[in-house]
Prior knowledge:
With 554 residues, this protein is of the alpha/beta class. It has a domain at 186-330 and 388-402 and 431-553: Alpha/Beta hydrolase fold, catalytic domain (Rossmann fold). The protein has helices at 21-37, 39-57, 76-79, 81-103, 108-124, 135-143, 147-162, 233-239, 261-279, 290-306, 337-350, 355-365, 367-380, 389-395, 402-414, 452-456, 500-505, 515-523; strands at 2-3, 186-191, 195-200, 206-208, 212-215, 244-249, 284-289, 312-318, 352-353, 400-401, 423-425, 428-429, 438-444, 466-471, 489-492, 508-511, 529-531. The chain has a ten-stranded mixed sheet, with helices on both faces. Helix 1 crosses helix 5 (108-124), helix 9 packs across helix 10 and helix 11 packs antiparallel against helix 15. The radius of gyration is 25 Å and the shape is globular. Mean pLDDT is 89; it is low at 2-14.
Amino acid sequence: MKNKNNxxxxxxxxxxxxxxxxxxxxxxxxxxxxxxxxxxxxIEQTTKLWRDFFEIGMNQSDLKPAPRDRRFADKSFSENxxxxxxxxxxxxxxNRMLEWVDALDVADIDRERTRxxxxxxxxxxxxxxxxxxxxxALRKAYxxxxxxxxxxxxxxxxxVKDNGGMPSQVDKSxxxxxxxxxxxxxxxxxxxxxxxLIQYQPVTEKVNARPVFIVPPQIxxxxxxxxxxxxxxxxxxxxxxxxxxxxxxxxxxxxxREWGMADYVEALDQAIDACLxxxxxxxxxxxxxxxxxxxxxxxLGYFAGKGTLNRVQSMTLMVNVLESEGDDSVIGLFANDDxxxxxxxxxxxxxxxxxxxxxxxxxxxxxxDLIWNYHVxxxxxxxxxxxxxxxxxxxxxTRLPAKLHSDFLDIFRSNPFGKPGSLExxxxxxxxxxxxxxxxxxxxxxxxxxxxxxxxRSTKLFGGDTTYLLSTAGHIQSLLNPPTSSKRxxxxxxxxxxxxxxxxxxxxxxxGSWWPFWSxxxxxxxxxxxxxxxxxxxxxxxxETAAPGTYVYE
Length: 554
């Protein structure tokens, strides 16, 4: 892959860039330096903090945690004077620390970096993270005769040994891929060193003619789309009468370090040909999420450049960022040339970017939910991690080959999708404005990884009819929204020519899951109905391994 543009305009950052301890330490040192350079602000906030402490001591403070802050749900924090004052003391300290950051006379980017680091530090010192400051943990210890603390210690030792020192988020023993996850009937019908193509067995007598072709992200395994039976994208599509094919990417090793974006695009090119040959159709309705959406968009730009885009009727991009006018994500605050080049050098030295490293970055973007929550339940309460299919999938990480990682870094650094022709695949310039198929783009209202406003910007890139759909919830939960259990809603607005803020103001809210809307949208582009195929594959593309294939186990 050749990138012609060397400008330093950084795309909204994905965790493949990373957040190192050096980044954190630099921001911390800057905070200390600013304290010394602007002592009046620190003195002012310290004075206010002592006033807060006096009001707490005199029972005159009305400080309260945020209504949805589950850390302090225990009644002791409102009914027991000791715990109530402990909480108010911590809240006062948090408020003054953040007010100090806001008052600093520094550049906006430095202020946001400092705020992020200060918030990390303050949250780490929340009273609930410590045994004596956590009334529910003390209660459990008393009621269990200390057994909860013993269990917590055992789990802590186990996590230090087997989980990189991070608290486990899920009971991994409860799941087995192919047994109670990724169990939808199907077979591998095409295989390359980079991918396996799985075709699923239709469950209706009639099927929509054009198949759905799903491209998952390379930084996770494909079965996000086929989790437990009631939470499966694939099963839902099959019941709706679609023919479904999905890519299962291989989990690369250091030997595959040279696999780059061009190799992945070429593999998709061949997989789509196989899909069309098996179904006898003229085009697919393609789907890509997160990093898989970047790869799929690149592929469609490549097809448009070489005149083969007619094989793709539509594209659905889920929680995916292609173009940026600024940094929307928290980790984007730390993007600079040194960070990006250090990330590139680390994967180059190992041959791969380890999936555990990317998972840690995801976790530190939401530490209260993804780290401290499990620290308390696992270690202080002595409870086993939950049995949750999404968390199991999230912890079943994969690697990225060094070349693909480097290509992603180039994309994040130079933002080529907003600069037609600055990215090339096999000498073909990528211009998404020439991708004139219909496009549906989704975002999540509370997505901290690919903010919905950044996802919305992709509506300006494509040359075809574009629809934007905003689902409530975050990065993954906005996607996994089966109609049978949906308590969420989604927003639609036909006018995507306006800004994101104007779009959401004019959007209409629809109760329930967005999957039925998507099903209708796909069916309108499916070229009618045909009899369901009696067998999977064909004479050229024969059935191989049963789903979920072999690459998912690597």
